[in-house]
Amino acid sequence: MPKPRHRTLASPGRRRFLAGLGSLVLAAGLGLQASAVGASLDPPRLRENMQRLYGQSGLAVLEEWFSLLDRLAGAELRTQLREVNDFFNRRVLWVDDDLNWGPEDYWATPLETMGQGKGDCEDYSIAKYVTLKQLGVPGERLRMIYVRARIGRSRITQAHMVLGYYATPGAEPLLLDNLVPTITPASQRTDLDPLFSFNSSGLWAGASTESRADPLARLSRWRRVIDRMHRQGFI
Asked: What is the pLDDT of residues 137-174, one digit of tens each?
């Protein structure tokens, strides 16, 4: 497979998006909503929507996903993290949004990612996040982390997203990444510099341990993907 082509930080859509997050360090004190991504599913509605949107091939991947959930229910945490990471890394082809969706920086639901069979870093992270929550991993221990990824030994950086698992709010996270097959502690990923992280109930600037804002109020892309998940049967 050719090396994935990231959208760079110079991309207008991501540059505007990341620049808009600069105000987060000044946005403390906002009330936080309850978790917007629950741990409940409507399988008949998911199947109906997958069949309608992506046909039998999409439905086959969805059934594999249901089987994954059944197989990992009650498994050890490290097994759940590893298997979920592998499931999406192996079944989803990395492709940039402009080739996949047309609109720049589109955040896909897990159904859309599985149906398309391709996506970019946000799509992998969202799908893994929702799957682990469905398996019972507490949402407060999971965060999607936007980072600057350094390319090789150069000073060139690119925007990238990974999923982090935090044993405690202040712990060093384990990183689930679509570009690196193994799950590694953040300290071992010296190529990544965190910009901000979020989940359904909080948004953190940099490596801060204190949430600064309501993610649904600050991240319109996250709000839109949650709305679509509701309609598709994930929540």
From this structure: 999 999 999 999 887 776 778 889 999 999 998 899 99
Tens digits of residue pLDDT in 23-72: 443 333 333 333 445 458 999 999 999 999 999 999 999 999 999 999 99
DSSP assigned state of 108:
P
Closest CA to 178 of 228, 112, 231, 129: 129
Backbone angles phi, psi at 163, to 5 degrees: -105, 135
SS3 79: helix
How much of the chain is in helix, strand and coil states, percent to nearest 5?
45, 15, 35
Structure tokens, 208: 């801060």
Render the burial of 162-191: b for 16+ CB within 10 Å, e for the rest.
bbbbbeeeeeebbbbbbebeebeebeebeb
Round to whole Å and give the CA distance between 103 and 193. 26
Can you list the alpha helix ranges (DSSP code H) found in the chain? 12-20, 43-72, 77-91, 97-100, 110-116, 121-134, 215-218, 220-232
Task: Please report, for residues 15, 193, 199, the alpha-carbon distance to residue 21 in angstroms, rounded to integers and kept in the order given.
Answer: 10, 15, 15
pTM over 0.85: no
Q: Which two tokens stand for residue 235?
A: 């929540």
Nearest-Å Rg of the Cα atoms of the chain is 17
CB 65 within 8 A of CB 41: no
What is the SS3 string spanning 5-49? Answer: CCCECCCHHHHHHHHHHHHHHHCCCCCCCCCCCCCCCCHHHHHHH
CA triple 17-224-219, angle to 5 deg: 35
